[in-house]
Design brief:
Blueprint (H helix, E strand, L loop, with lengths): L2 E9 L6 H17 L2 E10 L9 H9 L7 E4 L2 H4 L3 H13 L3 E4 L8 H34 L12 E4 L2 E4 L1 H15 L4 H10 L12 H9 L7 E3 L2 E3 L9 H23 L18 E6 L13 E5 L5 E4 L9 E6 L3
Helix pairs in contact: 6-9
Amino acid sequence: MKKRTVIYARFSSHTQTEQSIEGQLRECYDYAKRQNLTVVGEYIDIALTGTTDKRPQFLKMIDDSKKKTFDYVLVYQLDRFARNRYDSANYKAKLKKNGVRVLSAKENITEDASGILIEGVLESMAEYYSAELSQKVKRGIKESLTKGYFIGGNCLFGYDIVDKHWSVNPTEAEIVRDMFARYKSGEKAKNIVDRLNTQGIHNKSGAAFTVNSFAKIIRNSKYAGIVINNGETYENVVPAIVDKATYEACNRIMDNQRHKQKTVQEHSEYVLSGKLFCGNCGTLMTAEDGTSHRVRSITTTSVLIVRRTRSNATRATSQKRSSKTSSLKIRSNTS
């Protein structure tokens, strides 16, 4: 009776392609044919590194081994299975518990004592290669940043990439400065976003601005000419659009706003707490619970009465009605 095997394949970066997967599968199928093995399934992870176990298909394969539907896991090389000796030993132990062994199509590893030694050496080499590659990548990024090069990723609104360098887009930069200036002067983020969208101004991807995309701009230190990578700060990579004082002031405002919202949420029992603002003055509205039949004191024109029925359904009304249910009075903080 033929032994059953599944094939696990992966490629880990943008420098590798689907052809890498096809090559791995071809070698594995050739090996299975030579060894008289029946391939009963494939597990493929795309653009995921072997230094981590956060690989969906890999974890599914480990879990499926409990079903006892295959006897081997066949990989192109052992580094496709894992590049970390701890993970390799851990998951091989789990497979062994379920009666499954790992095979390599390109590495001749016997099942005797010498095979254990060779397998350990190969795994150590794979981990060394991974660590060395990581060091080289970090060193390359550091060198590129030191020279002021663009190292990849999305270009920000307000900039263009010209000859592998960040360059200020004059038209977009003026819009960015206006966003920072308005926010620093106290204008609400939503009002700024609404103004941009009304004027037909879109972000780099052509989509409308949102409060979230606005916050990302305010939070991004690149607009102040600061790039932080791997714990090091570079100020020669991205030309600043706003000065550091403006950037820091806007971030303090945003920090305070987040703290205020969090405080309101932590001490609130109402669904709309921290989310309801006065339509006239724009200030945050607060709630008071009571059981009286009428609202006795109103100190602002912005008043909303929400009645809570016994079925917990809520509805808004501008009329005073006598009822045994409790009423909720919401008023502006400016009262």
